[in-house]
């Protein structure tokens, strides 16, 4: 039922003039995709610097919270542009994208990364100021840094794999994959 709703919404989006023109425009689609990748590089690069600082692997001579505060604004700007361009990429090819195994896994990893970030910031507030100049952050923050790195590596890998059609509905994937991917046309639904 949820897959049917997603499919119907994707068909509706696909029939809009803006979606069609964006998909058919060689320059617009490529510029949006390039902007998405560049802002991903900016945001994740800055986040990696913060995570490595928490792990005691980089910039250990700088106070951790000051480093994070200074990198926060450009990182969040990059994430905002990355989110907007990601939505635009989905909008350009909604039916195929909505039935992509890799997109669905990527969305789950993004949700995990968001939850991890919220928990990380709570632990950061509760950690107190004593550790700020220490080489390594407290264990809870180091765990959050490792989770962050793991989630974002998965997001990047899945994002790259979206371009490949190994599990497209037209290839009649196994029933479990078909249900998770959201295949509708002639496929048994769970």
From TrEMBL:
Domain DUF6644: 33-164
Alphabetized Pfam families for the sequence: DUF6644
TM spans (from-to): 37-55, 75-93, 105-124, 144-163
Source species, domain of life: Bacteria
InterPro entries: DUF6644
UniProt keyword terms in alphabetical order: Membrane, Transmembrane, Transmembrane helix
Protein name as catalogued: DUF6644 domain-containing protein
Species assigned in the record: Candidatus Litorirhabdus singularis
